[in-house]
Design goal:
Elements (H helix, E strand, L loop, with lengths): L2 H11 L11 E3 L5 E6 L2 E6 L10 H16 L5 E6 L4 E3 L4 H6 L4 H17 L4 E5 L2 E3 L1 H7 L3 E4 L4 E3 L13 H4 L7 H7 L1
Parallel strand pairs: 3-4, 4-6, 5-7, 6-8, 7-9
Antiparallel strand pairs: 1-2, 2-3
Helix pairs in contact: 2-4, 4-5
Length: about 190
């Protein structure tokens, strides 16, 4: 994570909060997603840097219920999501994993979109700390949030449009709502 983003994350996590709920930690299989509460801040780290933090079924299954729990917890005052490593925030859904286990695809996409909806409707402030490659489902984890912090190394992409598919992860919702003709430009380039 670049130094500026690291400083912002530290500031948010170490801010002076009323109470502390430090020490709670949740993790998906093989620590693919690490969720912990530090000083009243729920921190989600997508932790598959070798796979560009591609979102898989296990990650969604741990992130969604914990975010619901944090939403109900008055001690969690902020939720941050970030990616591990230097290359990517989240390269989207794990298409390699879905190809290997095609039966999961019928369950994966509804659960991914349910997570996007939760992010869009959270009452607890949610910040996406975006550094590096952000594609498809990774875009869905960011654009529906109230707050987004992106570095100069951030690259947004909806690669499914190059295949002639409609933009997933809510792309057909957020692109036309961007100011001016920005959504049209982004959708066509």
């Amino acid at each position: 994570m670049n130094q500026r983003l690291h400083n912002i994350c530290n500031h948010l996590v170490n801010s002076n909060c009323k109470t502390s709920t430090s020490g709670q930690r949740y993790a998906a299989a093989n620590d693919e997603a690490v969720l912990e509460v530090q000083n009243n801040v729920g921190v989600i780290t997508l932790n598959r840097p070798k796979a560009l933090n591609a979102l898989n079924f296990n990650m969604i299954n741990i992130i969604y219920p914990v975010m619901l729990e944090w939403e109900k917890d008055p001690n969690v005052q902020l939720i941050i999501m970030k990616g591990a490593g230097e290359k990517a925030y989240c390269a989207g859904g794990d298409v390699v994993g879905l190809f290997k286990n095609r039966s999961l695809s019928k369950e994966f996409f509804p659960k991914e979109y349910r997570l996007d909806h939760l992010i869009a409707t959270l009452k607890t402030p949610y910040v996406a700390l975006i550094d590096g490659l952000t594609m498809g489902g990774g875009v869905g984890l960011t654009v529906h949030s109230r707050y987004r912090v992106a570095t100069e190394r951030t690259t947004f992409a909806m690669p499914e449009t190059a295949l002639g598919l409609h933009p997933g992860a809510g792309g057909s919702y957020f692109l036309p709502r961007l100011q001016g003709k920005l959504g049209t430009y982004l959708g066509l380039t």
